[in-house]
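User: Predict the complex.
Assistant: Input components as received:
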Amino acid sequence: MKVPELVKVSLEVNGHRFEGEVEPRKTLADFLREELGFTGVNLGCEHGVCGACSVLLDGAVVRSCIFLAVQAHDAKITTIEGLAKGEKLHPIQQAFLDHHALQCGFCTPGMVLAAVDLLQRCPHPTEMQIREALSGNLCMCTGYVNIVRAVSAAAEKSRISEKP
Amino acid sequence: MTGAQWKGQAIHPREDRRFVTGRGLYLPNISLPKMLHAAILRSIHAHARIVSIDVAEALKVPGVVCALTGEQARALSKPLRPLIPLPVETPYYCLAYEKVRYVGEPVVAVAAVSRYVAEDALEKIHIEYDPLPAVVDPEASMKSDAPLLFEPLGTNILWHDCFTYGDVDGVFSRAAHVLSERFLIHRYASTPLETFGCIASYDNSRQYLTLWSNDQRPGQAMPILAHSLGLSITQIRLLTADIGGGFGNKRKPPYLVLTALLSKLSGRPVQFIEDRRENLMGLVHACNGVMDLEVAVAGDGRLLGVKVRDIADEGLNVLNPTVHSLLKLGNVTNCYEIRAVRFDGYSVMTNKCPSGANRGIGKPFMCFAVERMLDGVARRLGRDRIELRRQNLVPPEMMPYTTPTGELIDSGNFPETLNKLLSLIDYESFHEEQKKARSEGRWLGLGLALAIEPSTSNQSSYMLTTGKRTASGAAEAAMVRVESDGSIQVVLGDVGSGQGHQTAAAQIVADELGVNFEDVQVSPYFDSLVSPWLYTTGNYSNKFAGTDVGAIQGAARKVREKLLSLAAHLLNSSPEELELADGAVRSKKDPKIRKTIQELAQVAYRDLLALPPEMEPGLEGRCYYRAALADLPDEQRRVRGQLFVSNAGHAAVVEVDIDTGKVAILKYAIVHDCGTVLNQVIVEGLVHGATAHGIGAALYEEFIYDERGQLLTTTFVDYLKPTAVEIPDFKTDHLESPSPYTPLGMKGVGEGGAIPAPAALANAVENALEPLGVRLSELPLTPERVWRAISLASKKTE
């Protein structure tokens, strides 16, 4: 079998610059997990449905399991590990804690990032908008009830803090 | 101040913080030096003879280290010991040999430097199959001319038995009404988001296996591994990391054995992680099945007797068959006072994925059949469906109540559960709402279902099907240790898989030792060298309330007693005059006379000559707690299959689009009673999640096999899990009927919601379509199935 040629990839993850050489077929998820150690990127289906591997790529949410590492060349990526500022959690993470919006935690990184993406695009979503925005992320534990409540509460909180 | 302080508090699970920051230590996140990755080549046939396997080309792929075939596995290991050993012999190894028996069955495994390379190598393996006729339908599989999965058996029927309790023939011959109906259940699974995985590291120099896995029953996995690999239990160390959901699905000893053999062959650690396709075709499915249910009803609506003929399709489950059957047997009368029962049960093999544990195991189907039947009885007798149920519920004054099959319903107030449910769903006003909607051409329906939700499996119940006493009772273990600096450590046999066990355990221990919740550390991990464990150790059958709590409390009490004795010695007092509070042992009369736990720990571990001469150093308590309620089957074959019985009522309002058959849930109400609530936040979360599983099973999820046994649903694109759009917000309420038989009055909660949800939804859809005369006896209620039922009904009325 022909050994695949390695391709140089240079990208920024959570504010840090990384360079590596990867096979062209290597997924972004595997690159982030195996080469760079961002194991908060969970793999739940590896066919782009469950959303557990979601990351923010140049600000937009992508499924890193169906995205090649080479496609992320020069991109800026945020994983769940890059969301908190030190010990201070991102407001969505805090809302997930406050509403027990998780059980086993495996979907949580993707779910939180999908919610971050939603609130960036749509700061005051309706409940149905939240449900639709999260419909690309499967959770097998919570029935989504507390997740939807958490995202609603985070949006509400930011609305209050926006008021003069 | 030693009374309850932390118990009952709605504390948010402490484990959540780790998970929201992406710091879960799940199995796939563990990596060892020089670790190889395994990939498995699986059968493409439902049934075929293996003519030849050629791995030579695969071994030439750069980076491939070794390959393992079924024949090699057979030479290197003993057959997997069944958990439920039926009298029939069906030898089964971690890889297929001679024959494959379902699509997705592991045939060859390869270990390589990466999963990519391992999968490349699979493409180079040449297998010649001689395809055989497959049998997919369980009833067809029972016929004498059916293709046989195991020829020497001469049949595909793994087990058949008929249980009779009470005067069944008498009540059926005297009954004013006898109704019968056939119900079907499909194959589905809870599919935890993290798939099954393990890492084996076999040290050939000392024949020692270290194994990390996310197997949720380590206590059971250990002896199976030891037996298969020809090792003693002392030659195996089994560890679990954070488990990304279990729901019964995460137990697969064949994968543990397989990975161990690859590690033994390669001399390197090997990781195997299922991909989702492998998970959907090969891990585990809930049994599909066919149930003929007959009920005998008196003229006034009293339910007199029930007869069941049940066929459980086990697929290739030869490791723990009959679990579904036994749990249906135990749940056959649901929450009703029915005195006569006949259960004619079959466990049948087909060329499909092995069946096994899945949230509720058999109970959702039993509840579905009984609760569907009750709506049918009400219709036939012209009775109100609520009143009919109310008339037949086991009344609270009869608690604890023994069912004809020997189950003990320990506590509960079923009429009150029903009352609360009716008010939560606003039952009174629904009739008007429905009438109004119908006048607008909208098809609204309300359905409800009541359910018992038993928990804590009694191992003795398997004696009913095996005839052998290989295990009995129900138990769990835990350890509490005060370290030399006074900090408190708890180690659990059952570490859970997302149910907040660390938080719940800390609440219990904090109360026992009179310390702050925050001061109690609970390990999230299982380690067979450190954790106390026994055969029944693990995360299953909702047993936390039934056995784990007793073990945690028991371990804490051993430490507590020692702290009291030690303090009494140092304070020249007696233990009776002392109490634990505020992190210290102090005099009840004068709280200023005290020794902090830290001071006592210093003595216990360092200032050893200050100890009473007869006292052992150290402050450690281990408890192996056995549920006293567990029994053996009696001569009438009655047994408490599961020991502590929660209950619930679910009600749904749905709207059906009769042009497409699409069902939308408009409202969903849940009233549940799991005895004393230790932590409302955790309980509510589990109720939500279990209900979502029930909704998924009822409306969306289905493993579909074609007639040749090909699985057509092998991705989440075809196997539909409900998303945030499909699952509604739930209205919940609860009752607390403490169990008189558990240490804190708690009862199981994890699987509850999955049990009544399918019945409630089917009843709701049928109610919506009542004017059309639609009958639904089969799940899931996909648009196609509902649309066909509507078409069929309208043809009948034309």
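The two ends of chain B are 75 Å apart (CA to CA).
Let me know if you want any component modeled separately.
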